[in-house]
Write a structure and sequence with these properties.
Blueprint (H helix, E strand, L loop, with lengths): L8 H6 L42 H14 L3 E5 L2 H10 L6 E5 L4 H11 L5 E5 L4 H7 L5 E7 L11 H10 L3 E5 L4 H4 L9 E4 L14 E5 L4 H13 L5 H11 L2 H19 L5 E5 L9 H7 L7 E6 L2 H11 L4 E2 L9 E4 H5 L9 E5 L5 H12 L1
Parallel strand pairs: 2-3, 2-4, 4-5, 5-6, 10-11
Antiparallel strand pairs: 1-7, 6-7, 8-9, 9-12, 11-12
């Protein structure tokens, strides 16, 4: 049974689109570990399923729920956020020109430079906040994809999705948006005329730091989408049934977790915006933040649980403060119930373009006052 499409995200999430097991009436779906499915005496597939590398019942609930949240025609889960992102590029053809942002998740940037160009893609980096530069970089008949992150990792840069979609479409290209930081509760890129939206589902969608997963949602089911699905099957970038089950379980509390994380992140950012030990607090919810007006336009219900602080004293000052933290966990990743912090330049390595004084912070569900107090003592 599925719920009416008019219901609010909180209801759809809490009830997993009204799931009930048709055999037992259970309100929680079972895990289906089978890798293969029997055919009938006439050699037809009894359930329409062939093999779990192509499909698994545990994908169904996640994909349907994500399509509902994003307002998309279809969704697909992948073995990781990187698998989902790279599938979009692998579905292109040699010689295709793609535009990517200057501020982009470092692992994807490294993959684009180290692998995608070897496969014949022409990858060009551009400042996605400068529409004039994006327009100048687009090549009619050659640019097939514009990829953007907003808010971007790790500087929280905000890009205008609707304006970028219009530019891309005017030049015959598609717009794909990495909306991991925003989640479907805060931004719906497809409603702003993007063609694809990507999530590292490891992060907020799962929300418990115990699943590696990725997801894509498309505005329309077309040949480009079918090519992406073929990449998933043929490259084997598939999610295990237990991981898909955990992902759906995590998503059912998304509407409770994200608003709380947004409130805490805004409080932390506002507290340290003019702190004597801080050079800059980077958070889209601050009126002083570049791109705040765009964020107000395209983010609804909050500005996310991510922020970055630039610490006075350069890398030395940032690392010293990092080492003195007691409550914030010094660890990679984001979107979980525990607050995490990391020195991104160290993680990204010598080719990093991240400011060396920057600490990226994922705000969890702890008491906001405790989080602020721990930062205060670390910066003292």
């Amino acid at each position: 049974m599925s719920l009416p499409s008019s219901l609010q995200p909180a209801t759809a999430l809490a009830q997993a689109l009204g799931y009930l097991d048709p055999t037992t009436g259970a309100v929680v779906p079972p895990i289906q570990p089978s890798t293969t499915y029997e055919r009938g005496p006439d050699n037809r597939l009894l359930s329409g399923r062939l093999y779990s590398r192509a499909d698994n019942p545990n994908y169904d609930g996640v994909e349907a729920l994500l399509s509902h949240l994003e307002g998309g025609a279809a969704s697909a889960v992948f073995s990781s956020g990187m698998a989902a992102a790279t599938a979009v590029f692998q579905a292109l053809r040699p010689g295709d020109h793609v535009l990517v942002p200057q501020v982009i998740y470092w692992a994807l940037r490294n993959w684009l430079v180290g692998w995608a160009t070897d496969w014949g893609l022409r990858v060009e980096s551009v400042d996605m906040t400068d529409l004039a530069r994006v327009r100048a970089a687009l090549r009619p008949g050659q640019t097939r994809l514009v990829w953007v992150e907003t808010p971007a990792n790790p500087t929280l840069t905000v890009s205008d999705i609707a304006a970028l979609a219009a530019l891309a479409h005017d030049h015959g290209a598609r717009l794909a948006v990495d909306s991991t930081f925003a989640t479907p509760l805060l931004t719906r890129p497809l409603a702003l005329h993007a063609d694809l939206v990507m999530h590292s589902a490891t992060k907020y969608l799962n929300g418990h730091s115990d699943v590696i997963a990725g997801a894509l949602t498309t505005r329309v089911v077309d040949e480009a989408w079918q090519r992406i699905l073929r990449v998933r099957v043929q490259a084997g970038s598939v999610l295990g049934p237990f991981e898909a089950w955990l992902l759906l379980r995590g998503m059912r509390t998304l509407h409770v977790r994200v608003p709380a994380q947004c409130r805490s992140a805004l409080a932390v950012a506002a507290h340290f915006e003019r702190h004597p030990a801080i050079v800059a607090a980077l958070y889209p919810g601050l009126p002083s933040f570049p791109g705040h007006e765009i964020a107000v336009r395209q983010m609804h219900g909050g500005f996310g649980g991510m922020l970055s602080l630039r610490v006075r004293g350069g890398a030395e000052g940032a690392l010293a403060a990092l080492g003195r933290l007691r409550l914030w966990k010094r660890a990679t990743s984001l979107g979980g119930v525990e607050s995490l912090v990391e020195h991104r330049a160290s993680v990204e390595g010598p080719q990093s373009t991240t400011p060396p004084d920057l600490l990226r912070m994922s705000v969890g569900l702890e008491d906001t006052g405790d989080l602020i107090a721990d930062l205060e003592q670390a910066l003292a």
